[in-house]
Amino acid sequence: MLDVHRLRLLRELAYRGTIAAVAQALAYTPSAVSQHLSVLEREAGVPLLERTGRRVRLTAAGRVLVEHAERVLAGLEGAEAALAAARHGLTGTLRLGAFPSAARALLPAALVALGRDHPGLELMVEEHDPAHAVEALRAGGLDAALTHDYDLVPVPEHPAVESTVVLTEAMLLASSRAPADPADPVGSFRTGDWILGKEHNLCGLAARRICEAAGFQPRIRHQTDDFPTALALVAAGQGQALLPGLGATHLPAGVVLTPLAVTARVSVTHRRGAGTHPAIAAFQAAVRQAVETYLATTRTGR
């Protein structure tokens, strides 16, 4: 019988690439990870890893076993969800992740609703970039997270997690004056300075793609991943910025917002199979209510 914990180690090796990275992510020593994987190979009866010096890679059999491990682990999540649904009341710790603008605009109201309706839940929040949140979900460091993606930077489907979109809204051009050409608002500032997030950040990458779609490479004067800072710089005449609506909840005077034909999506993401867990379902319901409140507020002005 194959051991589930060892299957999880093999799956993490498939994603992280090195035994050292697996050990660091799951709080093992590298030697312990190596020993567990060696035992798994004996249990499987076929080589799962190819070793080249200090590096390892999965064999064809190892990759097949990882595919099965994904289904096994999702099935266990579903079993835990079914058992939790059979209990009376929600208790225990719910570890939540969120990117900064969602943590600021959506999460507080959702936490208030969860605390009111399910006082037995201990709610713990960590700020995460969406890419890192998926890693934390897969490794068990988070139970659910608010994540985002953009039209021009779609996030590929991940076999270990699943997402439900709870908010779709237009990306915004923030500038100190209205675009000269309403039909090409971003291109109206092609010769100007830009305030963008760093390229490794999804929003920063999306902003660059928006400029490229308008036919130019932005001249980046300032880089910040903090939307209030970007808006303050726009208000100070330092350039233009691109951001999702969630990032423009507190607008400085003198900033003009122009909706673009590019959408940003916010999702509730959790491990595959865990969607029916009562605590995850309660979190998703609370987020949806928070989104309704947020949308009602934006309709009446930021």
Summarize the structure.
The protein has helices at residues 4-16, 19-26, 30-44, 60-86, 100-105, 107-117, 130-139, 202-213, 227-235, 278-299, and strands spanning 49-52, 55-58, 92-98, 121-127, 144-150, 161-175, 193-196, 219-223, 240-244, 256-271.
Describe the structure.
The chain is α/β, with parallel strands linked by helices. It has 2 domains: 4-83, Winged helix-like DNA-binding domain superfamily/Winged helix DNA-binding domain (Arc Repressor Mutant, subunit A), CATH 1.10.10; 91-302, D-Maltodextrin-Binding Protein, domain 2, CATH 3.40.190.290. 44% of the residues lie in helices and 25% in strands. The protein has 10 helices and 10 strands. The chain has helices spanning 4-16, 19-26, 30-44, 60-86, 100-105, 107-117, 130-139, 202-213, 227-235, 278-299; strands at residues 49-52, 55-58, 92-98, 121-127, 144-150, 161-175, 193-196, 219-223, 240-244, 256-271. The strands form 2 sheets. It has an 8-stranded mixed β-sheet with strand order 4-3-5-10-6-9-7-8, with helices on both faces. A two-stranded antiparallel ribbon has the order 1-2. The chain is globular, with a radius of gyration of 22 Å. The mean pLDDT is 92.
